Amino acid sequence: MTVVALAGGVGGARLAEGLQAALPAGDLVVVVNTADDTERHGLLVCPDHDTVLYTLAGIADPAQGWGIAGETFAVMERLAVLGEETWFRLGDRDMATHIARTARLRAGARLTEVSLEIQRALGVPTRILPMADSPVRTRVLSDDGWLDFQDYFVRLRQAPDVRAVSFDGADTAEPTPEVLLALEAASMVVICPSNPIVSIGPILAVRPLRDALRAARARGVPVAAVSPIVGGKALKGPADRMLASLGHEVSAVGVARLYAGLVDVFVLDAVDADLAGKVASLGMRALVTDTIMGDAAARARVARETLAALDGG
Amino acid sequence: MTVVALAGGVGGARLAEGLQAALPAGDLVVVVNTADDTERHGLLVCPDHDTVLYTLAGIADPAQGWGIAGETFAVMERLAVLGEETWFRLGDRDMATHIARTARLRAGARLTEVSLEIQRALGVPTRILPMADSPVRTRVLSDDGWLDFQDYFVRLRQAPDVRAVSFDGADTAEPTPEVLLALEAASMVVICPSNPIVSIGPILAVRPLRDALRAARARGVPVAAVSPIVGGKALKGPADRMLASLGHEVSAVGVARLYAGLVDVFVLDAVDADLAGKVASLGMRALVTDTIMGDAAARARVARETLAALDGG
Asked: Which range of residues forms the domain containing residue B287?
């Protein structure tokens, strides 16, 4: 059985960890957002892929949810001495990932091939597939103009209000054979509790990928989405403020509306139980449960409940 | 006053350190061999430049003479996990140099420009000029065929006998404006006690650079060379075995013969005092002194004595 999850960074990685624990090894395929990817010091950094990678490899920093546990910063400190920009802070172990990835890409490999190699080297049973091999890059429109995503996200700490988003390269991005094969093989699809605008949004903006997801659903493959908004707030990151500044309702219902027509089961937190009726009115079955995934047990439980709801559809 | 030194790695860096100490800040220009340069993990590594750089910046590992003091290896250990070759072991702080250099080269800068930027960032008053901006790469012929230099030097630990050397790219390498200007401005030139075959050899194999050196000498600019062979042995590295397998005499005289016609003053160690007559017969003045440069004081002394011998020419 193949289960395909769509994921961004930390929130997506947590549910992906639960799904990996709940499923036989190798059954999970995670399609990750690449529109946060950025070149730093000439190296390709893939924040969402690497957050999912380190989480599924069991080496993620448990406190912050991204980066590698026990990380050191010797390279970054020297890069500062050499006059390089250092607001995007990369650890030494993490840097090795970017170095190896960039070297192999420059030698001619596709991003998907390189990503799979790195996952195997770390012993990860799950395949984590970049949504596209060609660059797609998110920019956000602030009141001061367009910003590269990491400028907004890291350098400016998500302070600016986001008035619009664009996913440069999404229009022309080809779906990878790996992503298309995974969606053809899928028996279930789970949209992780990632930011619907800038994490899941870019994945769905790759038209042939969205078409393949729709085609799977048309064949009867059920799709679930887990709300990243709980009690009107984002569990992590700027999703709540971004929904507001873009004119969406800041609630699980606001998220559900964005997925209407794509999703069969919508998972919302127990604190939002009163919203279940509104979700149902959008044509989705509502699954109400505790969606806070603080530890591995909670992650596996949310995963199992979500899979069970899809299976019971 | 500009003094130009030609240098390879550790031995050259030691005399360069002495010259920097002996001269007013900014008067020393070191032209370094680039034919040892190598691409590792997609990053350009310049061993000779960086050994001179770290030595002149006062941050070199005092025990091994290359690399940065107090170095750590977190990146390399992760690169090993990711399946990268690790026989060329790069420290974390050193890696930052290669990352910054490669990023700026890919952004379009010349190697000389990037090198000067890095030197300024480390507060080095001396300018360390790559002998060429375009790649020149040493290969050595072993009994098992041609080897890339670092394959021979690091991976095989200089075990193979060297039957021939080639400097790929030297024929077509353009001299840089910076090297030509330095040689035009030079009032003295010092060939450091580096391997005459694979450290000084490639520099002199860049024909226009060699011509500029000859032109300076024809204008009356005196040139000294310091022997890297003391008592019939190389102070460091494979220079002695390389001289032997290439059919040269393994002695200070053997080195002096390689520089005949290029050099006015040849500095040889007190243990080789009996060779001074043979050196003189090659048309050079012999300076006999203690050339072992174990500490900063000894380096400065050898530098001062060499400069004095040139000045007194």
From this structure: 2-136+170-311
